[in-house]
Amino acid sequence: MDRLASLEIFVRVIETGSFSAAARYQGIGQPAASKAISQLEEWLGVRLLLRSTRNLTPTEAGLSFYQHAKRTVEDADEAVRAARGSATGLDGRLRVSAPVCFARLHVIPQLQRFMDKHPDLDLDLRLDERHVDLVDEGIDVALRMGDLADFSMPARRIGQARRLLIATPAYLAQHGTPSSPSELLDHQLVIYTHDGVGEACTFRRETEEATITPRGRISITASEGVRAAVLADIGLTIASEWSFTPELVSGAVVPVMVDWVLAPVALSAVFPTGRLVSAKAREFIAFVESCLQPRAALAA
Questions:
Q1: What is the per-residue DSSP string for 105-148?
Q2: pLDDT tens digits, residue range 213-235?
Q3: What pTM value is reported for the model?
Q4: What is d(CA 75, CA 63) in angstroms, rounded to the nearest whole number?
Q5: SS3 at position 285
Q6: How many CA atoms lie within 13 A of 252 on its CB side?
Q7: Is 134's pLDDT higher than 80?
Q8: Which of 173, 188, 197, 295 would you label with 123, given CA atoms 20 to 30 Å apart?
Q9: Environment class of residue 196 by beta-carbon count within 10 Å: exposed (0-12), middle (13-18) or buried (19+)?
């Protein structure tokens, strides 16, 4: 039994819902497709499909096996493309996970030039604040902000931005401008958080150092919400300059306490453990890096 061929037939059966459609896709006869699945079940020692006269239904084991089989087939296809040097002619589907705000401001506005360069490539861009499981969700590459919690996954740093204390001119005109970290206790802070408490931040100025834990009446679990609150003159926030790039350029928001420096924020490309890094993923990351280049002046 050719196991890879059987895996591909099984994947096609699940996706098409029939032996005949899968057989046509593979260019084989229906009996050969049915035999391949039977041999696969015998080799695994589990039933993958429930067969009836009208339809095929995957078992629980079959659904689980399908996810792994699909990734194996995709990796094999990618290996063939890489060996043939097809990086310049990308095709298939690329699944990317990215933070909502960063993608909206920096990736999506320039996405058309990436798609124009690769007309045979389909992009599945999944925007989420949470860190999804790359293997379980079939993600090819994820963009992650900040320190990486899981060092077992292959990763590459692709950018870095300042973290700034930011407010609108209208908020500062009404409430005053803080000049030191201790004065933040007298201001309304909009806190970006996952658990209701902001992360401790260390401000540095020459030989001075001050660590505060942001506190405020408003905590928000999405960067877009933090943006909306700050732009509504509700309070100050500590955020990466990437989160407010257009407004920093236009002057709609301004950095505060610029003589006090915060640790920068890193942007990393993270790849699923145990899978070949595809040419499609590498090309997309190169595109994201190019998206950040026009903003380099902000990071100076």
A1: IIIGGGHHHHHHH-TEEEEEEEE-SS---TTTTT-SEEEEESS-
A2: 888 889 999 999 999 999 999 99
A3: 0.69
A4: 19
A5: helix
A6: 13
A7: yes
A8: 295
A9: exposed
